[in-house]
Amino acid sequence: MKVLICGSNGQLGWDCQRVFGKENEVMAYDLPELDITDKGKVEAVILEFMPDVVINCSAYTQVDKCETEQELARVVNVDGPGFIAQACKAVNATIVHISTDYVFDGTKEPPLSYTERDEVNPLSVYGRTKLEGERRVAQITDNHIIVRTAWLYGINGNNFLKTMLKIALLTPEKQVKVVDDQFGSPTWSLRLALQLERLVQIKGQGVYHATAEGYCSWYELAVYFLKQMAVPFNIVPCTTAEYATPAKRPANSILENARLKLSDNNKMTGWRYGVEHFISRFGQQLIDEIINMKRI
Ligand SMILES: NC(=O)c1ccc[n+]([C@@H]2O[C@H](COP(=O)([O-])OP(=O)(O)OC[C@H]3O[C@@H](n4cnc5c(N)ncnc54)[C@H](OP(=O)(O)O)[C@@H]3O)[C@@H](O)[C@H]2O)c1
Who lines ligand 1 at CB under 6 A? Predict the structure, then answer.
């Protein structure tokens, strides 16, 4: 199978290259070689490679910056996926497009979760543009797999776990407040890439939720991760109200992988297991990267 990956230097794109590269012919692009907002370039790349599947991991993912960079967020999260979907339709390829838990308003009381059938109501520019992106893709081609995930971490790119580790290692004396009243499911991008592989194999269609099983708060995640890393830390819980951010975030981001479970295709595992597995593979590398950063 020929697989094109867009956003290949991001967390998920990086792991998709590894997972899909094992048994497929993979072509991987990111900025500046392929800007998904460049319609002509998107068409040219897809027409030349003639992929069976295009996985769109590109996105404008800086949730707070989206509030001030609204036009850029819309172009990357809505128009770009639309251009990819159009080109996929022209060559009869499947588009796998990634979306987010932030399409929901999070007003359900945890541990209640959101399934694919729940009403969407995004609270932020990021969430609204990602939802519009889903709809744009689905309007253009039926040959789509849209996967909503949440709280991603991986070895490539920036994420919450790396930020917590950096603070703990470089400024151990500093006390850090971490939000303890937003709940979600921390999801390892490698595990998600394996789930995408399964969805492609079974020729999935429509919208799927795919996050790690179980849930926690950001504070619980930070504490669990740093304890497993055996790194001393000075973190205290706080409320969302105490930690003001430009973008409003859902208090409850817990997604249920309902369609995956219904069809017996859920490959996602518990979030604690994911964090432990991530550490066993990359724990030392994470520390080395930060220590080297300090030396520079
Ligand atoms: N991270 C999360 O917690 C999370 C949660 C839920 C859903 N998601 C969704 O999951 C997907 C993957 O997320 P991720 O965490 O892997 O994202 P990421 O690490 O931010 O990677 C996104 C990649 O897309 C690239 N990109 C940005 N604008 C582009 C453009 N115009 N053309 C081509 N590439 C462009 C970025 O390049 P630059 O870095 O140079 O900008 C980056 O390499 C996204 O759709 C995201 O919305 C993420």
Answer: 6-7, 9-13, 30-31, 34-37, 57-61, 76, 80, 98, 100-101, 130, 149-152, 157, 189
